[in-house]
Specification:
Number of helices: 17
Oligomer: single chain
Shape: globular
CATH class of the largest domain: Alpha Beta
Helix content: 25-40%
Distance between the termini: 95 Å
Length: 642
Amino acid sequence: MTATPDTDARLLSAGEVAEFLDRRARMPLLRFITCGSVDDGKSTLIGRLLHDSQALVDDQLEALAADSARHGTRGEELDFALLVDGLSAEREQGITIDVAYRFFASPRRRYIVADCPGHEQYTRNMATGASTADLAVLLVDASRGLMPQTRRHAHIVSLLGIRQLVLAVNKMDLVGHSELRFREIANAFQAFARELGLEDVAAIPLVAPSGGNVAHPDPHMPWYRGPTLVEALESARTDTLANPDLPARLPVQWVNRPDSGFRGFAGQLAAGVLNTGDAVTVLPSGRQTRIAAIHGAGGTADAAVAGESITVELADDVDVSRGDVIAAADHPAEASDQFEATLIWMDDAPLFPGRPYWLKIGTRTVGASVTAIKHRVDVNSLQPQPAKSLGLNDMAVVTLALDRPVAFDPYESCRPTGGFILIDRLTNATAGAGTVRHALTRASTIQWQTLDISKATRAAMNGQKPMLLWFTGLSGAGKSTIANLVEKKLTAMGRRTYLLDGDNVRHGLNRDLGFTEADRVENIRRIAEVGKLMVDAGLIVLTAFISPFRAERRMARALMEADEFVEIFIDTPIEDAERRDVKGLYARARAGEIRNFTGIDSPYEPPEAPEIRIDTRAMSAEAAAEHIVAHILKDEFLGISP
């Protein structure tokens, strides 16, 4: 109804509207997710929440204005069918493939809800939505009961530190609004949740399309006397992610240039409260100082609370870099380069211990690798299972080693500084998400020992520049033959060398490894570390390994200084390698006698930009060796003339 002169007196005044909107803006904010198995009704429930919460707000306005109009018209009332139709691209695609965020408000608070996909292949998306949530609404279809994905999502909720959970038993109309069926599902889930450490679980029977127990009690279920879903959301704790009761944690995101005349350190206060004059510790260095000044959005302030973006000045000239954490001195974070963590694997490519990744924790990004998979977790039984690798959506307890110490807290005590992601170094895609459990004892007991004799001293004694010549190519390509000729030529010139051959090393150092992808990764990791030690000893090291994966070759390169690693691709077509197969390996692989054979049933990833490429169809082994030596001398890798 449009306002008329007769109804104007009963409409809200401009001042009342402004006051109402201001009060809405200052209401607490609850972040929550909806999750569960496929077709449990998540999007329908969100549509009903948006519709019914809007109706509650309209009722509040009507009570204030004592009129049936909202700002003079009811033309803005939301239509539930249109809401559900417009929630996502599901009606076109049949599935939710990403996290859809919705914003709405009830009379008491504001909400951000993340609608997470239910299909197992999109578990990674659900973990993304859960990472910033205060509460989870886990849907179950009453006619189907608990599904594997229900348990998986509950497990992820517990891993990511969400301690408030609503079990929404939806589609109760399909089971005749049966109290017995509801209790059966609720009791089974409560038992499972207790094993996960989830104690704050509210079970609510729902009929989302009609709104039963969403915002108003359902008359078809008089036996249920608990809260509606809206009431449960309105009574939940908010801002559990940035907890002001925790010790102060400020991950440094940005540092002013010293020559700017102002030396400040900016970031979002992840936890706790910072006051001017507080004693703080800069981690991982451990240097202590005090807060000299705090600058926020409104100017200089005496204090800042969790969630605020601030810039601080320190009382002393302390070295602080992006990624460091400024922490309360009386309760500092930990700092370590090794820790145990719970990991959710999100990549189609499997995880193997030893494979290098980037690890991002807070504002710090460092090199990292999983050193061991302690066990994989079965999402149905929660029992640990042995595993040598992790596949898509697997969850496991692992140990990680970083290339430098980082500041962190155990995730259960501080979510913002205890969560991390692993990033694929080749694609820059997120490969996994994890939560820190604790630092490894060996990280604090093993320290780098300072040695008086350096690599430069050893290189000078040998009269050469040490380096690692990394030969890679298919089995039978000619790697060992050419590497052997190169070493002979260098030795004849008086150079000190050592050749690490793939077959020879497997007789000793790597005799415990097979040829699975996981074992191949570990094989190359060990060789790269041995090669690094030999280069440190001042030697020219040659390695002749298939080394089929780019990730491991990149890892080996990263261990060396910029001009110490020379990748040499022995480029031989598989048909040529198979024809010259003196060991008969290809024939055995074709016959199925050898599994995981590179080029047959295991991939080879050729180098994208090797320093040297040898085309064996156009160059003999002798000519290839001459070319490699000449290339090294020409580029003065050895630091001498031929």
